[in-house]
Design a protein that fits this description.
The structure is a homotetramer of 326-residue chains.
Chain A (H helix, E strand, L loop, with lengths): L8 E11 L2 H11 L3 E6 L2 E5 L9 E5 L4 E9 L2 H14 L2 E5 L8 E5 L5 E5 L31 E9 L2 H12 L2 E7 L5 E7 L7 E5 L8 E7 L3 H13 L3 E8 L6 E6 L5 E5 L14 E4 H5 L11 H4 L16
Parallel strand pairs in A: 1-4, 5-8, 9-12, 10-17, 13-16
Antiparallel strand pairs in A: 1-5, 2-3, 3-4, 6-7, 7-8, 9-13, 10-11, 11-12, 14-15, 15-16
């Protein structure tokens, strides 16, 4: 009888995005994405989709650069949090406990093998709507804003990493994430991985960084209710002068209907929908995509845009940038 | 520190539906619902939505009556199955182990307090598509059939029960289901409950049976990808002469875009979509709907149709039927 | 060889709606419907959907009562306007020429046989967007507002009339509208008619007024791009406390996906979508619905709500109101 | 006072497509596009979308080559047909009267300046559904097939032409089509035109042929009800191994949500949706796109695929094919 699956991580909680164009980035998330400000503290603005149940899912922090400040997962319980901390401390990648942040209590921070800062917490604050934010139906966190793209909730994020395998094993062994899909090149090396702790088919992805730079961020994704909503998002990005990098189109991997844009500071943001697709199998066999299969492009034949492999935040150092599609 | 949540049930696996009009019911599920036959054995036909990962999700069995033969949940592991059996045996409601069925191994059957037959199993058979059923994308169980309503996967079921509270506590305590929403009448009695073991906001619901008859079935639901797909399903039901009981409309409870029909033998079947709604909170506080709130009707104001409270399968005995809306 | 079809009316231009709750009605059309103010004059506010090519399609006028001030059609040419005026003058129902209004030049006003005021004009002002209203694509009148329901353009209107046949013949003979569908009761009397001068399957409808009151208004309809947009409109109406009378559902007549609400002053407003349905046949044979067919309810089985036959604006006089569903 | 608009052409009726792979092409239109066979005669199969009111909209003819056999427009009346014939006879491009074809009476054929064969007719046969094709709602031509892509009706076609201006003037002057959009290059030459005789924003388009070959065909388009239906069509094409050339994406010109594929013999076929967009203005000012604007790519930024400018049917002669993207 095999080992039982771990159930300690409940879901992706929030992501901290760094921006060196605070006003423009804030306007993008509020007016174009249709998100709601639910907190301000220090150099940070806290933002949410209308159906995020916690106080916020995005912490936007003014900075001299761009990229991901940290990403946070909520655990299933206080005990689960402590079990994971014990495991993480053994990896030598632990950073330590924090006193919490606006909206959540004590958290434990660590590095993944590629150097991104990841956080675990359990104590959290449910969103409390202001009177004019109260929904008609009380099983909904907040009134539908009917503004901009009206993103519903945070869905997943994507980081670059130089060593995909090392990161995959780290998240599998220490946090209990399950691999649902991956790319394995002809030489046996891993070029991408999609992992989940929920019934969503992925809570995050890591894809191969080609320049040897650590800790780079690829994108954060917000979910809308239908594929048609992604098309409408494209119209709204277009009308607002937002740079659309690629999409809407359907990924072969995970079958997500995707749309990628750069927010004003250059961080990549995705709006996506997965239809009614869920991973319900407790023993899901990871889908392995080969190099040849990836070369077929996206599901409906769109060639993967070159910048998708190179553009990340923060930008590459000047000496690495030559000839790179950004 | 509170008790940790149980994680032994993985998901709703399949439901056995009894029909006394086998040919007509089969045609309904194949031609109108767009499901695929993936097995035949004895008096039963095994059917599936194109994205159900197991061999089937519906067992349609010829019978002298209608209603639910049994419903089955898959566990997270073999150990989880055995833990649940131990708990169930203590309730006195256990029936015992089976040798399995087409598509899955040994299973344990028991009664819920209202007398419905429920089954747990872990060993299962993943669907193996025939050559002409192979999907283009290998992360999908089966080629999209492009026939009828094209239902994607089983979503949930609904039974009637005389004592909602007893059934709720049974599923909470013995199987670890979490209550997400419920109806509590002014006199404190429970009239409906929605429970989940996944990130779907419910895997099943039980609503109040008004006539004191045990073991009745309300409906089984298949998911499609968008709310617009539910509207298209309504067109297809209409064109095929299927009786539409109510919908498409939006439930206040759970916010599902619903559409209810009676398949030819009279069993209620739903086609539904939940958008990108998921219950991700590990400590979700159940939403309690009051009697007054339920009287407001459905989300957009539609009055709940009377037959929704009375029509179930098998039909009521003749002496109970007087004046009942079927 | 039969008479050739007339081509003098180009399309429905605008409708004047009277309100005795100006501030609330204006907020409804701007914030909830997502319309844009494109003019103010006297007691009137001029509003538009983002793809109406003329300056406005709705004139909202402060009044002591509610209902339709007038409705206006644009002709295909100046010559067409003059031809229609000649015909109208012969009917004895002419009112006379006006000096125009904000956004259009000279117009000719007349009564239909039920006493509604109808206007014809040709000279018009195309909408000129302010800098922040400029669309990205120059084949679009105005930037997509991404606010509220985002109605696209005026679609049609519906009036009550005591004598449907008289009104039908009036619009056929004097204005060249073509009948596409109608309801004829068992006694041979007409109970509803749908007429068009375009490839839309109707530019207006008249339905039977039951109380002998002249000049009453039933509703004005704005089009959105998809049936799913109508569902989203229902969510937005719900969130904003707007009274939803009935829908979303599909009409059997004309197959429109409909959603009816009352704006704050009580005028009925519809948001609708017809898919890709067009009447292209130059010799379309009118569809005649019988009394029995109408009793089947709407396309998917919803019973037609009683108030649909009785609620109109202005409200009925007090002595007629007894027992009437409003 | 200016000349009045002509109203002699009612709509695009049908298009004859040549195929040198009859069985495969037929299977594509029936099984994948979801069209219905409504006639067979000689080497031709007659096919229809479920809401085409005439007997058919596509005549598929076995041939030694590919491309367009002819395209046909229905006139508003018999008199309109005769008026147009008189005008066409004066151009020297007339071919002459035919005795009609399956489904329509006498027709007049002529060449456009680029050599395509065009036909006008008035007498037509409305589609008469077989018992199992009868729709539930009698305002619909045929039961919704619920098979494949379920295309609704023919929408438009596109031909290549060497001299766009000459063709535009020919259709304007002799047939009364109105130009709604066009591409004019920096040197003043016209590179594309979109014309209509209806409220659709175009009934056909002509785009610049680069190799000096006459009479080539670009594509025929069928309409579905929503943009989401176009996405689903992409899934169905993908599952059926159909070559997707480009899309789904949104054209800047005309804002159509497009999806282009090659049917098995190589003819390009489009599935598209325009939302609720209509051209209602009788004096619409043609939108002129410049060379620079076209270089921005499609609406959401997709680069126009090279084969879109070169691939047509029949294929280019071998000596012209070098280096051409097909």
């Amino acid at each position: 009888m095999s080992t039982e699956p771990m159930h300690d991580i409940a879901h992706l909680g929030h992501l901290e995005l760094l921006t060196n164009k605070m006003a423009e980035s804030a306007a993008f998330f509020i007016d174009v994405m249709g998100m709601t400000v639910s907190g301000r503290e220090g150099n940070s603005l806290y933002l949410r989709g209308w159906d995020d149940y916690e106080r916020y899912s995005l912490k936007l922090t003014e900075s001299s650069t761009t990229g991901m400040g940290h990403v946070a997962f909520r655990t299933w319980s206080q005990q689960a949090l402590e079990r994971r901390v014990k495991a993480l401390e053994r990896t030598g990648l632990g950073i330590g406990w924090t006193d919490g942040d606006l909206g959540h209590g004590r958290s434990y921070r660590f590095h993944d093998p590629d150097g991104h800062v990841v956080e675990l917490y359990y104590d959290t604050e449910y969103f409390k709507p202001e009177p004019d934010q109260k929904p008609y139906l009380k099983n909904q966190a907040q009134r539908y804003p009917a503004r901009g793209i009206n993103v519903r909730r945070i869905d997943h994020f994507n980081c670059f990493a130089s060593d995909i395998r090392a990161n995959r094993e780290f998240f599998e062994q220490n946090l209990g994430f399950r691999l649902t899909e991956q790319i394995v090149l002809d030489d046996g090396s891993e070029a991408g991985m999609w992992m989940t702790a929920t019934n969503k088919s992925y809570d995050f992805a890591y894809t191969k960084e080609a320049h040897g730079v650590r800790g780079r961020f690829h994108h954060v994704t917000y979910a809308v209710d239908s594929r048609d909503d992604v098309l409408r998002a494209a119209d709204i990005f277009m009308e607002n002068g937002v740079h659309i990098e690629t999409g809407p189109h359907k990924h072969g991997v995970q079958q997500t209907l995707f749309l990628y844009v750069y927010e004003p500071a250059g961080n990549r943001v995705e709006v996506a929908n997965a239809g009614a697709r869920l991973i319900l199998a407790p023993d899901w066999k990871p889908i392995v995509w080969t190099e040849a299969e990836r070369k077929r492009g996206q599901a409906w034949g769109l060639k993967t845009i070159e910048s998708f492999h190179t553009h990340g935040t923060p930008p590459l150092p000047a000496d690495l940038k030559k000839g790179v599609s950004e």
